[in-house]
Write a structure and sequence with these properties.
The structure holds 2 protein chains of 2 kinds.
Chain A lengths: L18 H23 L2 H24 L3 H5 L3 H12 L6 H16 L12 H12 L1 H5 L16 H10 L8 H4 L4 H10 L4 H4 L13 H17 L6 H20 L7 H5 L4 H8 L10 H21 L6 H18 L17
Chain B lengths: L30 H4 L4 E2 L5 E5 L9 E2 L6 E2 L4 E4 L5 E3 L4 E10 L7 E9 L20 H10 L12 H6 L6 E5 L9 H8 L1 H15 L4 E6 L3 H13 L5 E6 L8 H9 L14 E5 H13 L5 E7 L7 E6 L4 H7 L9 E4 L6 E2 L13 E5 L18 H5 L6 H9 L3 H6 L10 H5 L7 H14 L2 H34 L2 H20 L1
Parallel strand pairs in B: 1-14, 9-10, 9-12, 10-11, 13-17
Antiparallel strand pairs in B: 2-8, 3-5, 4-7, 5-6, 7-8, 13-14, 15-16, 15-17
The chains are: A mainly alpha, B alpha/beta.
Chain lengths: 354, 510
């Protein structure tokens, strides 16, 4: 030997886990859901995801350059890619490219970099971007396609036509946006409950499957599968998904038991809209979640409860994005109130004769 | 496999400690050094015995250059009752300031002794009282005078710890060596289990408790079996072996105490404040060696391991031996550009070279090849994943501490209880952003101490000085009594005669 090549202090052992690897795992975990989504709703998701990711990366690069940060380091962390993909999951399959891009620009530029970039954002960037679009273009954001199911009277749009619409806003001859799109099951339940129909009647529509909307059920299943993969890989822990689902399903079950004609059951809530995506991929974003496991249970249960309240009594069909942002803003408070008892500072241990 | 000792009634500790919720599972990397038995490192040609006695201060040499000393001879004392002994026989060359293992740039005056290769013991050694009915005060004095300190690494004088015992429910012997690579305690328990048990009996007597629990980790079954065999051979029913989950840092003193007793050591307190005395198993073996063989602490077991050394193993080494001798004894370097680390990979310290001497705190030398212990990952900002607080054995919030220490927010650091940080490195280990957390906390702690009011510091100093005065008074008289008693005992004379005879015989053979 020789000299210590460097005088670095301990520890000398490190986990092989890295931030880019965690982000990559999140992307892998979304693959089954993306395939299912494409099967049921066409290539719209893929088109949206490509546009959203490109816009996110460009915005990220511009912000990093303006802030004088390393482009090589931060563009390679995949966090902007994850934001773009998650945003695309929230958008209808037929969305003009500039709306998608605007969502990414807002998510990365405003929700992320104005707060200090990776690790410092108070709000979940994808949800902030989605909400910005939802309040700006409510019409566009609620026009969903019906799922491709054998017995539905519906001719799905071809991949080329989908791409053409996204890029140029033009549809094939004879087709109109109104004729193509349908309300989402969540939307339908809300609207028709307002028209004094019972849940039973509404669920008679061919858009509904065993629990939630047809197609949606399967997508949610595959999202949950991806979520289980993340749990297995310890990218996420159980606290947030379980608490979020409990926060949603417990009130859903209670109200369903009390009044099953006007409140959709827990199964419907579990398999509709963005429930699973939120539980496993959105609420679990560590940056904008609470810090301790106890805090995370409170944080995620709050998201579930707020989602239920907004779905049942709010004016938007799915309140998940708003619920996430609201609870994001409560995180500093939750963090303050859930500090664990530090070793040696708890209740003074009175030595009593054992 | 022998079963757990039968016990009656409620024990003051858990025989099946809970699995810790904190901590990290690390690659053990112990097998490489446990494959060979403990070997005796050849006597060095020259030793540099450090005079820095850690908490007991720096010792004043009692000898001068040119004098000849013998193994085990007292060569330096500190005002606070730290004792340093010659670890070989030979000629004192000089007393020099030398670099020693420890914090970066650590120096200590060292007594340089050129060995005469005879290893002739000082006449004061070789004799012990030889029974466990020793007067507790006299035994504590003898332990201090033999230079026995905590061999787990803190160098806290063992007698001082015993002195602090008022009401003790049980003695905890810590064999839960949880850092990767290090195996000196495990090998000691495997090969010299009876010495550990004997030490436990002596310490129990010295502090007036009648129960001992020896903690081993779940990945050292051989050590557990050896201990249980030794307990059965002696037909004891007051010593138990508890197995803690092999999870770092379950062997940390405070963490181990919590696992074994469900109690926490109060902040700024000692385990004795919670009603337990914690000692390292090697310390117990050293106490047994003192009482049964009359030997002061002049050697220890050191793990020499890592991919950079040809034959990783544990060596019994005289204090003051240059590290290069250990590496030679372990087969030498495998590559030229190795990195030397004293201690484990989590809390160890980088060493500037292999010329440094072994100290009483040197439990392990890792000779790491360049890529063996390197973190090549890029550093990202904290993403608040919370893995650090999940791993923290002190239940701190490292990510909040990081923010507070970066902004030098002293108030926030105090509120977040930075003081409770044991610098174990778990947060660094789990951090997916590969942030250097512990080194920042170490610095922040130093700043926090400086920020403490001058008055508080003065008061602390006064309390400490008074306590030390009190300790010294009792210990000096105890030591005197012990030595007087020794000098008038017939069997001591007989033992000394035996040692002299053995020495003479060896000299004649040469």
């Amino acid at each position: 030997m020789k000299t210590a090549a460097d005088n670095l202090p301990a520890p000398y052992l490190r986990t092989p886990q890295t931030v880019p690897e965690m982000m990559r795992q999140v992307l892998y975990a979304l693959v089954p859901a993306a395939l299912a989504y494409t099967w049921f709703f066409g290539v719209g998701l893929i088109v949206n995801a490509v546009i959203a990711v490109l816009a996110a990366l460009l915005t990220e690069a511009a912000c990093l350059w303006l802030r004088g940060r390393s482009l090589a380091l931060y563009l390679g962390d995949y966090s902007a890619v994850v934001t773009g993909v998650l945003l695309a999951f929230g958008l209808p399959p037929l969305t003009p490219w500039w709306i998608t891009a605007l969502g990414s620009v807002f998510a990365i530029g405003f929700a992320k970099h104005l707060f200090g970039g990776l690790g410092n954002n108070l709000f979940n960037p994808a949800m902030a971007g989605y909400v910005a679009l939802l309040v700006s273009f409510p019409e566009q954001l609620t026009n969903w396609l019906p799922p491709r199911m054998g017995d539905l009277d519906y001719e799905p749009l071809s991949a080329v036509a989908t791409l053409t619409y996204a890029l140029f806003g033009s549809l094939p001859d004879g087709a109109s946006l109104d004729s193509l799109t349908r309300a989402t099951p969540l939307d339908m339940v809300q609207t028709e409950l307002g028209e004094m129909r019972t849940v039973e009647e509404i669920r008679g529509s061919p858009l509904f499957g065993d629990f939630g909307g047809r197609g949606w059920e399967w997508i949610n299943n595959f999202i949950a599968l991806g979520g289980l993969w993340l749990l297995y890989r310890r990218i996420i822990r159980w606290h947030i998904p379980i608490a979020m689902l409990a926060g949603l399903l417990i009130p859903a079950s209670l109200f369903y038991l009390i009044e099953s004609a006007t409140f959709a059951g827990p199964g419907f809530h579990l398999f509709s809209g963005g429930t699973m995506l939120c539980a496993f991929f959105i609420a679990t974003d560590p940056v904008s979640a609470a810090m301790t496991d106890r805090g995370r249970v409170i944080y995620a249960a709050g998201i579930g409860l707020l989602t239920y309240i907004m779905r049942s009594w709010g004016s938007y069909p799915d309140g998940i994005a708003f619920a996430v942002l609201l609870m994001n803003s409560a995180v500093p408070l939750i963090d303050r109130l859930t500090q664990p008892a530090v070793y040696g500072y708890g209740k003074p241990s009175e030595p009593d004769e054992p | 496999m022998p079963d757990q000792q039968p016990t009656t009634g409620a024990l003051p500790y858990n025989l099946q400690p809970p699995r810790p919720t904190w901590g990290v599972r690390l690659p053990p990397r112990k097998a490489q050094s446990t494959a060979r038995p403990i070997a005796v490192c050849p006597l060095p040609r020259e030793v540099a015995v450090p005079l820095d006695c850690g908490p007991a201060g720096v010792a004043e040499p009692l000898i001068a250059a040119g004098e000849s000393v013998r193994t085990g001879q007292l060569i330096a004392v500190t005002a606070d009752a730290g004792y340093v002994h010659a670890t070989v026989s030979g000629e004192v060359l000089d007393v020099q300031e030398r670099a020693v293992p420890g914090r970066p740039g650590a120096m200590s005056p060292c007594v340089l002794i050129r060995s005469d290769a005879r290893d002739s013991w000082h006449p004061d050694c070789g004799a012990g009282p030889g029974n466990n009915q020793l007067d507790p005060a006299r035994l504590r004095g003898a332990i201090a005078a033999a230079g026995i300190v905590g061999l787990g690494g803190a160098l806290f004088p063992t007698a001082d710890k015993m002195e602090a015992c008022t009401q003790i429910y049980a003695l905890i012997l810590n064999g839960a060596e949880c850092e990767p690579y290090i195996s000196c305690d495990e090998m000691l328990m495997r090969e010299q289990a009876d010495g550990v048990i004997r030490g436990a009996l002596l310490i129990m007597n010295a502090i007036g408790t009648d129960r001992t629990v020896i903690a081993v980790e779940s990945d050292m079954p051989e050590a557990r079996i050896a201990l249980l065999d030794a307990i059965r051979t002696r037909d004891l029913d007051n010593i138990d072996v508890a197995v803690v989950t092999a999870k770092y840092p379950a062997g940390g003193e405070r963490q181990l105490l919590e696992l074994l007793t469900n109690r926490q050591v109060p902040a700024a307190g000692l385990p004795t404040d919670a009603g337990y005395l914690c000692q390292n198993v090697a310390t117990a073996a050293a106490v047994a060696n003192l009482v049964d063989n009359g030997q002061p602490l002049i050697d220890r077991i050191v793990t020499v391991t890592g991919a950079g050394v040809a034959e990783p193993q544990n060596l019994r080494v005289r204090i003051g031996t240059p590290l290069a001798d250990l590496i030679t004894a372990a087969g030498g370097y495998t590559t030229a550009d190795c990195r030397l680390i004293m201690g484990g990979p989590m809390m160890g310290r980088p060493l500037p070279g292999d010329g440094l001497p072994v100290t009483k705190a040197t439990n392990c030398i890792i000779v790491a090849t360049p890529d063996e212990l390197a973190d090549t990952q890029a550093v990202y900002p904290c993403v608040r994943c919370g893995e650090c607080s999940r791993a923290c054995p002190a239940r701190l919030l490292p990510q909040q501490l990081l923010l507070a220490s970066r902004s030098q927010d002293t108030l926030a650091l105090a509120e977040l209880r930075l003081e409770a940080c044991i610098e174990c490195g778990c947060c660094d280990y789990v951090c997916p952003s590969h942030i250097d957390l512990t080194p920042q906390f170490v610095q922040a702690k130093r700043r926090l101490h400086q920020a403490l009011g001058a008055q508080a510091r003065a008061e602390q100093a006064k309390t400490r000085a008074d306590a030390r005065e009190e300790r010294l008074r009792t210990r000096r008289s105890a030591l005197a009594a012990y030595q007087e008693a020794e000098l008038t005992t017939d069997d001591l004379a007989a033992l000394m005669a035996r040692v002299r005879a053995r020495e003479q015989q060896r000299n004649e053979e040469e």
